[in-house]
Amino acid sequence: MSAWLRTPVGMASAATLALLLLLPAILPELMPQNQARFWLANIFGRAIIYGIIAMSLIFLATYGGLVSLAQMSLAGVAGYVVAITIDGAAPSIVGGLSYATAIPLGIAAATLAALFVGLVSVRTRDIYLLMITLALAMGFFRFVETNLAWFNGYEGIRNVLGPSVFGLPFRDPHVLYYVSLTVAVLLYAGVLYLVRSPFGLVLQGIRDNPRRVAALGYNVALHRIAAFGVAGFIAGCGGVLATIYNIGISPGSIGLGATVNVLIMSVIGGLGHPIGAFIGSLIFAFFDTFAASIYDRNRFNTLIGIVFLVIVLLSPDGVIGLAKRVGALMRRD
Amino acid sequence: MSLRLSRRSALKGAGALALTAAATGAIKAPAIAQNTPIRLGSVTTLEGPFATGGQDAYRTMEMLLQAENFTIGGRRIEWTRESSNAQADVALARARKLIEQDNVDIIVGPLSGAEGIALKDYSATLTGKTIVNGSSGASDTTLRNPSRNFFRFNTDGTQWMAGLGNYVRRTLNVSEVTVVAGDYAFPYAQVFGFSLEYCRAGGKVNYLWSPLGTTDFASQIAQIPRTSGALVVVHGGTDGLAFMTQYAQAGGNLPIIGGSIMADQTMLSARGPHRRLMVGMVASGPMADVIDDPNWTDFVARYKRMPNAFPSPSIHAVNYATNLTGVIRALKEVNGDLSNNQAAFQRALAAQKFKAPTGADVSLDHNRQAISDIFLTKIEERGGTPMTVAFERARQVNQTLGTPEPAFLALGAPSRNNTGCIAAS
Amino acid sequence: MTSQLALTIILNGLTLAALYFIVASGFSLIFGLMRTVNMAHGSLYMVGAYVGYALWEPLYDADAWYAWYAGVAMGMAAAAIVGVAMQRVLLGWMQGQELRQALVTIGLSIIIADQILAYYGGNPRQFFAPDAIFGSSNVPGVGRYPTFRLFQIGVAVVVGIGLWLLLNRTKVGLMIRAGVDDRDMLSACGVDVPKINIIVFALGAALAGLGGVIGATAQPLAQGVDGRFLLISLVVVIVGGMGSITGTAIGAILVGLAEQIGQALFPTYSVILTFVIMVVVLALRPQGIMGRLR
Lengths: 333, 425, 294
Description:
The complex is a heterotrimer. Chain A is mainly alpha-helical.
């Protein structure tokens, strides 16, 4: 650990974490109080939350070679389970549960749903997988949008206020921020640990050459389904946070736009390392919030589409890839 | 402790107080307040299928603010516009940005039902900020769990159907109708309002629901019972156009009774075989293209002078204008004073009584929801273009359609299984 | 349910399937030869429909009998031009990088949808077919039935037979089929593969444009149809099997029937019927009904 901390990556990680921990104290120095609160919750907090969902996509894509567009739906599964079961949601579908029960239930449901997605698509790969997961995601979206009994259809379920943490309401920007940050750091560390574990190595082996891994006696299908389960767990955590952040969930939260947005975040940040998810979602949150000021709000989609296209064309591994290449160029000089 | 203050410390104290007052905008200091602008934010839908309505809403907002020269009570109005895509999450993100980043005092918006409920919930978490509806028409935004910071000067989807059920049953003398409606909250509210009256008057109703975004209605059209004397179509936008076109193509010829957004200009200006069926269509709603009222004539004349205006303002334009009128009038009454957590301003808002652009009298009930007039309209060809003409007005319709509130609430929220069709005993 | 109603619903399903086939066949064709998953296929549908409409509207107002046919030609041409431009400028040089191509087309579809909104606005619009195919006809066992829906079946059959003839009876078709099996060998034989790619892309895109105008005559044209028809194309070819014209037809019929029967029997859950079919097919035959394992 201490050796790792002395490597450039280790030092950068530690510095970033320190910066993120101190952020609530730094922001008020840079801007008025209310804007600092806004930035903390709605730029950084939101970026961390959606970054978790994007990280589940990047985990599958980078280490499993599986580009899944179902991740936002899986996040939605967790969010909907919480919204359906929690006490005080409007309308109350099942209700009666406390957050302490509903949240694990939601994450478990997302994990199970992810295992199902993995099972359905286990014999397909690459581009087929992208298509199948997109079709599944849209099927779930259409179902949720039209089903009243469980999902309250088009209107969705509101008033999911979140638990109080150490006696403080979740709605407080600091609480929202620190809880999201803690969850994100734990999951991030977990992903980095997992990919170095035997499971992660086999997964990467399957990505590069499934036949050889199968010949070595590993069960390829099982590893792939398990990878989906892990990604579903991550997406579920993000989904619960996103639902509480949005004070509820509606079909729009998991629609085609939302699904593609997660892909955009991942690609802009960089399919290549989990940190790309958070970089990408931070860039996205910034553009999404300030598009009206920096560009015509009405044409936000053209702007983000062009940014996305340019990244795919110039630097398929996203902003991190770009940074690496710039770094390499500088060192050469 | 000594009560004697030194001159110096008193001066310091006064200076600090003045500084704080200047910094926070105003603490009962109108002289300072007048220098800071009133920050008005707005949220509408400029992306996706509702984009045209959103643009029209901003057109009328701009018109009304121009008329005030962007100044009220000596304070400049600084207007920040935001746009959502009709999704609750996005509307919420925009509202947060307006309140927390741009520090606006008042938001006017949003446009659609789910967004309205999301912003109502959000407004309940705020202090010293006010959200006034734009055009969203879900009943629950004000009926159940209302928020003290949320005001709505437009009538809701259920109110819009006032008078229609009685008209179809009694005046048109139709004893059985088939309702074809979208399977989501806005049509539920409308169907509820219609059925409540129609069934009470002894009519029989068949219901055919279809999910939002249905484009092929052929099989549903085949299922319309032959005993129906009329078709009540409660669809909006593209779904409505799809249904009517396909019904016309299938050779359908039942009289059409429309939901409130069926008779909108977006529907009428689309060309197609549906026009044949739509001429003569009776509907009800908060407005019509032609209303015999000087207020409306004046409003339309001013509207037409705006760039890119339609021949007649859309329902969203009228609703945004009605809500903004409430805001402007209340701001004038308090002379632009938003101090004390907007207490005086919110009191003035709640007590507003004025004429909407349509000439309807508007006031608010205890949930800060509009009580106003509803028009029965008929589509007529005038000068070669079809338009809606108001021929009757139900005055001062409240949110519970005259039923006492507890009894109305006991009926439950409108849904596919709760259509409001309760036959008179 | 009366037999008349049942027949009507089945006919509705088949006519809808015809539209789905026209659109999805272009998607399947492009994929079959080039392995390119064109996520902008729905955007090509939308480009065809909107541009076709722009030509059709003034002609229709002028009472020109050929207005609709001109709209069809214009829609096909516009979609083909955009498609060829996509292939030449962006996709051609990353041939083989399937995922990157899919991402590029996703980016393009976002931009195209937004630009169409900017140019044409959010109002729904619709074509009217010429009088000859517009009204309703008598169908035995069904009664009066919209003629245009029957016409859709005719177009789909023509498209299907045309594609079969092209692939099986022409030199270009021979090359395309050879390319499906082994691109490198085809290239080694001295065939200009990039040119074949462009021809196929133009054809696939033109079919999307044709589907666009026909679809916008049967149903309203509005924002969001791009996503809808992309999704339909995906599901149809996943079910039917990638790159197979017969498979696409089978997939389209299954999806079209499922949609209409579902809507008639259980409207609330009708939307998921399609996806249940997809999941079942994937579980039993991951390559699709007519697909080949590669």
